[in-house]
Each structure stands twice: as C-alpha cells, then as structure tokens.
Amino acid sequence: GAGVSQSPSNKVTEKGKDVELRCDPISGHTALYWYRQRLGQGLEFLIYFQGNSAPDKSGLPSDRFSAERTGESVSTLTIQRTQQEDSAVYLCASSLVGTGGTEAFFGQGTRLTVV
Amino acid sequence: AQSVTQLGSHVSVSEGALVLLRCNYSSSVPPYLFWYVQYPNQGLQLLLKYTTGATLVKGINGFEAEFKKSETSFHLTKPSAHMSDAAEYFCAVSVSHTGTASKLTFGTGTRLQVTL
Lengths: 115, 116
What we know:
- The complex is a heterodimer of chains A (115) and B (116).
- Chain A has strands at 5-7, 10-13, 19-24, 31-37, 43-50, 53-56, 65-69, 75-79, 88-95, 105-106, 110-114.
- Chain A is mostly beta strands and 115 residues long.
- In chain B, 0% of the residues lie in helices and 53% in strands.
- Chain B has 116 residues and is an all-beta fold.
- The chains are: A mainly beta (115), B mainly beta (116).
C-alpha cells in the first residue's frame, strides 16, 4: 500500500483479555518499529524488526507483550492478560535500512482501551 | 544512550506570530535529529531532519530548525504561525549506523495552540 496501515484503529477490551494489533508496513521497508503513546506522554519505543528478526526488544514493558513479523511484511503485537495501564495508542512505523538518519513512516495507530 | 528534552508542553501563539519550539538532546555520538508533527487522531508526519552538512534545515509548511552542537539544541521555528499549524510536535533523536535501522528516542511533545 501507499503508507503504513494499522488495524484495528480502535479496540476496547476487558481487563484480562488478550489483544492482537496488526501493522502492514510500506512495501520494501525492511525495518519495522512499534511505539506506545500514553495519554499526555511522548512515544515509548517497544521493539524493532529488521526483516523478521528483532535485534532490539528492550522497550517491551513485560512478558505479557510480544511481537512477531512475517518476512518483511506484516507484524503483530500481542498483549496478553491486558491491564488498564496498557491503555494507549500503539503506533507502528517502517523505514528503509542502510542509511543514517532514515525517515520512519508512521501509521495512524491503534487506540487501545482496557476497561 | 540518547535523550530528548522539549521545554514547554504547551505553547500558545497568535496567528502571524513567530513559532519557537525548543528541543535539547543528549547523545554520546553524533546524532540524527528529527521533528515530527501529529495532527489530532493521525499518525506522525516528518517535518524535517538533520543528518549531516548544513546545520539550518528547512522542512515542510515553512518550518525550519537549526542544529547547534555547542548548545545541544535543535529548536523548531516558523516566522509566521497559521491556524493550521495547531498540532502536537515531537523532537526525536537517533544514532543509527549504516546497515541498521533508525530507532528513535522521542521527547514528550509540545502542543502548539494558534489563536486569532
């Protein structure tokens, strides 16, 4: 597609349920990133993929969070046993790899509300 | 490790007035610096970036920023604010190396309000 696509755009879930968020990056972008934006705060890095491997998972807040990526395509971020503090906008971005200062292109995000 | 500090979580200017959004960074290696804008209910859009070379960088919508190594700053300016500039602005730093991806470290953002 023309840009980074995320689905669903909004998700309301009950505390304790599992959720899966999807990101479809720009075609040809080897790098894919997940960020979390909590209300009134900046963006927190969660994880990045280079191809289908994840060299940096340092931002995942707990073992309830996991992510995977199929080749250089779709990625899913899974949150198990959701808690209210997981409520946030989850943003996905993709970029080319190999040049310094490469621009990351962002999707519109998934707004997750845990009730 | 890198970090970014944005001074002022909210800035209000009159239409036609100068816009100045402040960003200071910390990095142990030469940084790459970015400004992103986020309109309500939308993703982030790149305004401009500094990689190497000229320290005054021009971006979209009349914005520009100057990289000042001695001050570790990358402030964003626009000579004349427009109502459509009302949005949240994020400064970010990365230290990517050739062959790796550009993990961004963001500031907490500055919400710009433009009044008549």
